[in-house]
Input
Amino acid sequence: MLSIILLQNVKAMLFFGIGQRLEEGGTFFMYPILFLLLTLVGLTIKGFLQKDSLTKTISLLKSISLFTLFWGFLGFMIGMIGAFDAIELSGDVAPEVFASGLKIGLLSPLFGIVAFLVGRLGIIILILKNK
Output
């Protein structure tokens, strides 16, 4: 009984943590990456289940995964420009505040890289299935 309650708490903390990271990374960049990640997974499943138009699916996976990667880095660049503008205006910033801002800024490229790798893994799976 205790293990079931503990497991439910761990699941709730895990999903809350992911949602919190999505909010921290900036909703304008993180939620489109999440949508594109789900699209990549769906396209991989579609390509795995269907026999025809595999080249179109692989091409689409390549394009979407690369776009997702660059979308994450675009979020990082825009966030860092805004952070440096704020630092320039305030003059002096504590290292803890700067480190926290860098951590938050790196969330969108990290999520973009994860989505890119999922897309590339889907491409590898579809190519291996086709052989």
Observations:
- The radius of gyration is 19 Å.
